[in-house]
Amino acid sequence: MRLAMIVNPMTDQNLQLAAQVGVTDIVTIYPGLELKPLLETKRRVESFGMRLTHIERKIPHLKFVHNLPGRDQQIEDFKTLVRNMAEAQLEVLCYNWMPDEDWQRTSGDVLERGGAKVTAFNINDIDKNCTDATPAEHEPTSAEKLWENLKYFLEKVCPTAEECGIKLAIHPDDPPLPVLRGQPRIIINNDAMQRVVDLVPSPVNGLCYCQGSFAPAGEDTVAGVRKLAKHIFFAHFRNTVGKADNFRESFHDNGDIDMVEMMRAYHEVGFKGAIRPDHAPSMAGETNETPGYEILGRLYAAGYMKGLWQGVAGYRN
């Protein structure tokens, strides 16, 4: 297992803490289209003995998701990012097909064990609290059109990614609801993930498997890992409590998902990619300015994940 982490904020102390708990791969949020900042982040990460290998989150995508004016230019920008990643010797670009800007929550301060704060989603609170899911300025895009647009996108970007040696990993919709505020959503189950890789067969067209996105929808995530193993380039390891229309995050050892069986599945399929803790609670002393992305809960999760891995793999000193 290659233990990865988004370090937020990316201070020297937090980078050092990540290195101390055994993180090998650092994941950075979209850095823009200039190469220089990416190279500077790479050098900084390497100064702490780790590698910058992945980019994910906040990548501009709404124009090509919905086929809006400027779609082809936004795809060209995406390809520029791929080329920059190759220049900086990164490995995986994690993107999503969420019709909104990003994952959706209706609260960022629900209490978990010991008063830790976690994000939560309740469909009944969507109108008053979920600011990222406000109605779009265009008509809803049908599920059929979302799939057509995804195929168009992959046909355009896969040749560039192949040429550059960069793997593309699609992240599921979060929450995994078929419709949210009148807008269909398509990457909501294991079958959808299989359909993505079948749309445009390519060695770089793959998946970011996020168990916390699928489990609340009742998907068998252990079976999903086993079925999709050869296409999984990146994994998000997190736990949740509840169902797709009403759930909360949890400590990694305190939710509904069988984390032992999930880690066993990754071990038994021979997963060689990076896996990172995701959406960890904000703990005592943290500001909770970025719910789900504070550092202390991730450090706890990293140790828990390493313990699980050694347990299922057989500890070797």
Could you describe the 3D structure shown?
The chain has helices at 12-20, 35-46, 62-66, 71-87, 126-129, 143-164, 190-199, 211-214, 221-228, 259-268, 295-313; strands spanning 2-6, 25-29, 51-56, 92-96, 107-111, 117-122, 167-171, 179-180, 183-184, 205-210, 232-237, 240-243, 246-249, 274-277. The chain has 11 helices and 14 strands. The strands form 3 sheets. It has an 8-stranded parallel barrel with strand order 1-2-3-4-7-10-11-14, surrounded by 4 helices. A 4-stranded antiparallel beta sheet has the order 5-6-13-12, with no helix packed on it. The chain has a two-stranded antiparallel ribbon with strand order 8-9. The chain has one domain (2-313): TIM Barrel, CATH 3.20.20. Helix 9 runs parallel beside helix 10 (259-268). Helix content is 38%, strand content 21%. By secondary structure, it is an alpha/beta fold.
What is the topological layout?
Blueprint: E1 2-6, H1 12-20, E2 25-29, H2 35-46, E3 51-56, H3 62-66, H4 71-87, E4 92-96, E5 107-111, E6 117-122, H5 126-129, H6 143-164, E7 167-171, E8 179-180, E9 183-184, H7 190-199, E10 205-210, H8 211-214, H9 221-228, E11 232-237, E12 240-243, E13 246-249, H10 259-268, E14 274-277, H11 295-313
Parallel strand pairs: 1-2, 1-14, 2-3, 3-4, 4-7, 7-10, 10-11, 11-14
Antiparallel strand pairs: 5-6, 6-13, 8-9, 12-13
Helix pairs in contact: 4-6, 9-10, 10-11
